[in-house]
């Protein structure tokens, strides 16, 4: 039984009570296993795993796990991958198949992601990288593949999901910037802020939405405080520039171009100067590569920023 006294996630198995962290395994991923949306979870860690915690958490959850070499070592500084499964047979099959993975398509299918999303990820250039050559972030490509850009369901907000989003083969600059971003958010774990672990092919992907609603329903029932906090962070419009450069707003977006807001909201990013300037206003418009920030007095500051897009995530 998964429950949540005092705002923390706990597991009760007989007389044993075990407190869960928000990561390794992530709570949303546990929900995905419990709802059948996924059969296998996969993690890598740049800092290594807390093996004692992983073992205790999996035993408390009634799950099995395996530690394996990373199948694509050029995409991570970690040499060890963690596989977690609900069924022993599925875990053994996954362990065997991991040794013969040919690329991201087989990898995504193994983890149970929707075929449309796996195809989009594999074909969109995320894996066709060369050392030192920066690639367009997957979020920008998902946005481009989404026809109706006026509003997106918060279930599919993947702005803070840094898994499988390398910009170059070495990935070292990315990791350094991510750690700086994490240091700006000491009270939250940005990488735990997602409902589905995969990157959708579109912000209206039907298969991803179906799984996300089932997962979030499970979270709402069993860990309601966590679900409320998760929704609070995800159901917000985001001005997106790049992986570690964005501004989340406490407000409501309109037509995919405008947001009326009360303040800048966490998680905070490395776009510190832009955040400070946006805090001075209460309405922002993104149009044709220009960010227009309007103050209550009616004054307007215009910032030329060709990379800016508005991701209008909402409940």
Helix/strand layout:
Layout: E1 2-3, E2 10-13, E3 16-19, H1 27-35, E4 40-44, H2 51-61, E5 64-69, E6 80-85, H3 88-98, H4 104-110, H5 115-123, H6 138-144, E7 152-153, H7 172-183, H8 206-222, H9 224-234, E8 237-242, E9 245-254, E10 258-265, H10 272-279, E11 283-287, E12 290-294, E13 300-304, E14 309-314
Parallel strand pairs: 7-14
Antiparallel strand pairs: 1-2, 2-3, 4-6, 5-6, 8-9, 8-14, 9-10, 10-11, 11-12, 12-13
Which descriptors would you attach to this protein?
315 residues; alpha+beta; 8-stranded mixed beta sheet; 14 strands
How far do the termini sit from each other? 28 Å
Shape: globular
Mean pLDDT: 86
Order of helices and strands: EEEHEHEEHHHHEHHHEEEHEEEE
Question: Which sequence of strands runs across the widest sheet?
Answer: 7-14-8-9-10-11-12-13
Count of helices? 10
Strand content: 15-25%
Structural class label: alpha+beta
Tally the beta strands.
Answer: 14
Task: Report the radius of gyration as a whole number of Å.
Answer: 20 Å
Q: Report the sheet with the most strands, covering strand number, pairing sense and barrel closure.
A: 8 strands, mixed
The low-pLDDT segments are: none
Total separate domains: 2
Question: Helix share of residues?
Answer: 25-40%
Task: Give a short synopsis of this structure.
The chain is an alpha+beta fold and 315 residues long. The protein is built from ten helices and 14 strands.
Detailed description of the structure:
The chain is α+β, with helices and mostly antiparallel strands and 315 residues long. The protein folds into two domains: 2-235, no CATH class; 236-315, no CATH class. 32% of the residues lie in helices and 23% in strands. The chain has ten helices and 14 strands. The strands form three sheets. The protein has an eight-stranded mixed beta sheet with strand order 7-14-8-9-10-11-12-13. It has a three-stranded antiparallel beta sheet with strand order 1-2-3, covered by helices on one side. A three-stranded antiparallel beta sheet has the order 4-6-5, sandwiched between helices. α4 (104-110) packs antiparallel against α5 (115-123) and α8 packs across α9 (224-234). It starts with a strand and ends with a strand. 36% of the residues are buried. The model has no long low-confidence stretch (mean pLDDT 86).
